[in-house]
Write a structure and sequence with these properties.
By secondary structure, this protein is α/β, with parallel strands linked by helices. The chain is built from 14 helices and 11 strands. The mean pLDDT is about 95.
Amino acid sequence: MVNFRSPELAKQVAGHLKGIAPKFPVKFCHVCGTHEWTVTHFGLRSVLPEMVEVVAGPGCPVCVLPAAEIDEAVKLALEGVTVATFGDVLRVPGSSLSLAEARSRGGDVRIVYGIHDAVKMAIEEPEREFVFFSIGFETTAPLTASEILKGPPDNLSFLISHRLIPPAMELLLGIGDLHIDGFIAPGHVSTIIGLKSYEIFPSAYNMPVVVAGFEPLDILFAIDMLLQQINNGVAKLENEYNRVVKPEGNEKALRHIQQVFNVVDGRWRGLGRLPLSAFALKSKFEKWDSRKKHKIKVGVGRDILPGCQCHLIMIGKINPIDCPLYMSICTPESPKGPCMVSIEGSCRIWSKHGIDTHKT
C-alpha cells in the first residue's frame, strides 16, 4: 500500500514533475479548503516546478456563505429562536452582525458538531423553537436530507444554505484574466456526486480535471496527471482518488438529495448569483423550511467589507498576502472577512502557517 505521506516518495514525484513541466506557465486551481491546507501545511508549492502554479478557488463552504443568509440567522436568534450551527460559522460577518455578536446581545446561538445534536436539543426542549443553520457543499447536504426524510420534531426547522461545487468551477472559466489550465477537483464532494458532474469541463471547455485526495502525494499525483494531459495535448477527467471516489458517487446519498431538494440559483459571497448552484427544500417539506415557517425577511446583504479582498482570494486571482488587510487589521483573532474566519479559508490557513511574504 502506498504511504501517501512518504517524504522519500514525495521527493521522487517532485523530481518527476520538474522533468515533465512545460516551459510556459500553467495554473491549476483546486476548489477545496482541505486541499489548500495540505498544499500549505506541507509546503508543496515550494517543491513544484517554477512554471507550475496552484491557486485556491471557492472551496471553503463557510467563506462563500452570503451575508444575507448570516443576516437571516442573526435575525432569528435575536427574535428568540434558538439557532444551532457549526463553530466555523459563528464569527462569519453578516451585513452588520455575526452570530457571535448576536449571541453577545442575548441571542440563543448554540454550537453543534452535527445535525443530530440539533435534533436532540429540539426533542429535549419541546417548548423552544430551533433552527439548524444547514451549510456546506454536496458533502453535507445528504445528512440534512436524511434527517428531514426521518421527520424531525415540529419545533425544528432548517435554514438551508447548501451550495454546489461544479457551477462555481464553471464560473471561474468565465473570468477572462484568470487563465486556469486545469482543475484539481475536491475529494470529499466527489465521494458524494461521483464523476459525471465534471464531464462538462473536458468535453465543453477542453479543461483537464483530476479528482484528488488530501494527502501530499494525492496532490502531487494530481498535478502529475494534469501535466501529462497538457503535454499530450488532451483534456480528460481522471480520478486520482479512486481508493475512495467511485464513478457513480454515493447512490444512496444522491437519492436522498433528489428526494428532498430542488436545485435553484444561489448567491455566493463575493461571486454573485450563480445559476443552479444551490439547494432548496421541495414544497412537500416546507413545514421544516425556516424561511417559510418564520417568515424571514432581510435586505440585500453586504458581502465584502471595505478593503477586504476575500472575493478575489476565493477565485484565485490573488493570494491572501496580497490583501491589504491581511495580518494587519484582519487576523484570526479579529477577522474582517470570511476567508480569515473558517479553518478552510485561505487567509486563515496561510496565517496559521506564518506566511506573511511571497515566499510560500
